[in-house]
Structures
1.
Amino acid sequence: MRIKQSKKLRSKHFYNGKSKVETSITRVVLQDDLSNNPHCIHGPCILWKTSSMSSPFYGCSSYRSRKECPFFEKFAPNKQIHLVEHETHPHLPFVLERQSRLKALETRGEISYCSTCHLCWQNQGELKTSHQHHHVHKGLSLSQMKHPLSILEPLSANKGEAQFHFTKLTMNVIMSWFKKNKWKNVLCLGAPSVFEALKHENLGARALLLDIDDRLASFYDMNEEWLWFNMFNNHFFLGNESERTFQEFLRSASSDLVIVTDPPFGGKCELIARTLNAITQYWRLYHGILRVPQIFWIFPYFMEHQIISCMDNLYMADFQVDYTNHKTFQNGTGGRKSGSPVRVFTNVDGICLPFPENLGYQFCAPCEKWVSPNNRHCDICGSCTAKNGETYKHCRKCKRCVKKKFSHCKLCNRCALPDHPCNLFRDKSIADPKRQ
Ligand SMILES: C[S@@+](CC[C@H](N)C(=O)[O-])C[C@H]1O[C@@H](n2cnc3c(N)ncnc32)[C@H](O)[C@@H]1O
Ligand SMILES: [Zn+2]
Ligand SMILES: [Zn+2]
Ligand SMILES: [Zn+2]
Ligand SMILES: [Zn+2]
Ligand SMILES: [Zn+2]
Ligand SMILES: [Zn+2]
């Protein structure tokens, strides 16, 4: 069941092009150091292996559709590594132009923003000459420019960025955790709503946004607020300049460090975990090797096994994260009956993360954490066992809790849906308990 869902997700959000690679399972070949790998415009490439190709290949870390990033190079084990000048991202001149226009904005005077060219200006003449048939937001104030998410269209779900924004309710819950715990230093890794809210709510927290969306150059200062960053290979598009800002943020984060990340759901856990670990290591260099940052990694519940196998200090908090612009990942009309499948993976004690009681969330005393309305504590398992928003039931033969719709099949000796392909499980011996 889990495999089926995760494949479906991948095909929707990540493996969206037409190349052969996308129909087979693609795995990361983990390497300690990526710097000697070939680079595409998105930074160092990843060594990938697919079930349909015999030898590994280097490909883009972030965009897996060849339409988005065509880079492909077969792995040749004995090939000499030549240090070459890496190609810069073709958007670089536009990013610099956006940033200089932002800095030139004056407090008085209406601002226009063209969401076709991603440029802002105050000079009335510019509209007539350059943006006649474009989609232009007119009459913006400087303070409106500080809320880019209300101006920017979310980038398409089919592209690598897969931008889905949290609902107000989800944001309120996340903000309530910040208020309660009084955290002071927050890195938002692909979480622009959290960054925007932290900037405007007076919580006394400093925040830095790391995101690949280069349209943000029209709204945020690139020396203080936003760094153009690829979270799948830990790459800063503007090199040393951004790295200095980033290191300075970590150096002055002596009291704590919170990392909130909401990556595109097709993103490989190994790569996200590697970036989270790298950030942790940099921070420890300044503040001691035993320090542990607070991590919030927002991802679907059925990725639990993959996440925990990359970062075993995280657990799945049973809060359902909702998005404004995602049909499946929201509550109510059009969403799943049992609510959004997206959860928060964290290392913060459950007792520090209350969920809204008025929505039916309950505190489980033996587990010392909040759980979703339909979750029940199983005395045999010793925990609240439901994962998907429904109530699970205990199977004595399997010795664990399983989904409500499952029943125990004597032939397979496992719990499965009543119409499961029984012979398939028996013949191929793939009755893997983790799959439930
Ligand atoms: C699923 S959205 C999360 C947005 C979040 N729900 C919010 O409301 O703030 C994914 C975010 O990650 C960013 N992103 C996508 N690919 C990225 C990459 N390779 N590196 C860094 N950021 C990336 C997108 O631009 C987007 O802001
Ligand atoms: Zn690329
Ligand atoms: Zn324009
Ligand atoms: Zn419990
Ligand atoms: Zn149980
Ligand atoms: Zn069973
Ligand atoms: Zn069976």
Note: The pocket of zinc ion (ligand 5) is lined by residues 378, 380-381, 385, 394, 400-401 (CB under 6 Å).
2.
Amino acid sequence: MTTHGAALQDAVAHATEVLTAPVAGLVPGRLSTSEWMMMVRDVERLGRLVDAARVALAGDAEQRTGGPVDALAALRFASAVDAVATLTGLADRDAKRRIRLGATLNAGLSLTGAETRSVYPSVARAVSAGNLGVDAATILTDALEGVSPRIDPVVIAEAEEALVHLAEGSPDHPPLRADLVRGQAHLFVEAIDPDGVRPREEVARRKRRFTIGPDTHDGLIPVHGLLTLEIGAGLKRLIDAHVRKVTFTDGPRQLDDTTRPVEAAESVESVESVDDRTPAQRRHDTLADIVSAASRVKDAPELAGAAPAIIVTVTQTVLDSGRGVGSIDGVDTPISVDAIEKMTDSRGIQTVTMNPDRRILSLGSVQRCFTSSQRRAITARDGGCVIPGCTTPAGWCEVHHVIPWRAGGETHTDNGVLLCWGHHQNIDRGPWRLTMSDGIPHVRGPGHPDRTHTTKTRTGPPLTRTG
Ligand SMILES: [Zn+2]
């Protein structure tokens, strides 16, 4: 054993022996408050001292796998991380983090055995003195590493020294908490590297991505992605604006109701109490509204010469009986005829008749869907999703057949109302009942025990009429 190793081992053995009994016998409740405060502070400092040794030792793992002799591979460790994780019982992630900080702070040994300086000597000194915790040290070195390729090393060294001084405290000021160290580090970095924001945005723009699918075995399509700040913030605002808690009025609308925003009206019960969707489900439904609105835009991009239609294959028997499933082109999970009918109502259907060997026999015209002029008329009447309290604007809504098409309901303005995607999905099961009376939509539901005329339109005179 080297003398360096022997001295260290002695010290560790001694400290362990001295500490084991008092730590095992510690009853914090028996301490006076001033003793407790002192212990919290002093034990933390002791912990930081031990951390300094842990970080320094872990940081050396890389050195032992690099170089001409891979000492760790010879001991059957797969990597530096594997060695540290196995020896300490740490998770890989934590071992990696500890190695990274140690490797950054450790002084090196040159080929002649002379010590070379640490890259961040001030941070290294404060850590090994037990004055700076591992968290704060990681924050500081990460912040400085981020700007070091572009900034003069002298400036970096000055910033490092000033930050460490702030973070570890001095006789004049107390040490900074780790979360405040982050803020200070950002301020310094922005001061010495004002152009840094631009490269960061460049990197963010390169990393932007959005992926959809494939569908999972439980019939859902996962989405993943990283949005740029402006797109992410824009999407969040758009969705939040419609997901927020809304209230609705009690009883039939009064004459002046149409001039008042729905939210400002007297509320008796929040939609929350009848809306059993979670906030995440409501965000999904708002996204559905946005998707449905975007697919209706006149100059939407075309796929193979046609508007981006969804191709659904379903047999006539299933459509006629209203029972069974079909399939969406490009998706493995089958879709119920119920869902197909809702898509049909708002997007239209073009029937392709094929014989059993899939030769096309006939091609029907688009039918069953409300035309754009019908939709405009319905929009003028309903002004948005007709469910009380729902704020989904008309442009995002689907047109719903109040009497289903299969039950003989016509594709006529007197049989169509605007519903957002979420309410459209739930209208057959949910608490709301829709009826048409002389071409005017009425709802019955929570807070509306009687059939209540419903409209969100703010353009014309109120059409109060109960039937
Ligand atoms: Zn709605």
Note: The chain is about 45% helix and 10% strand.
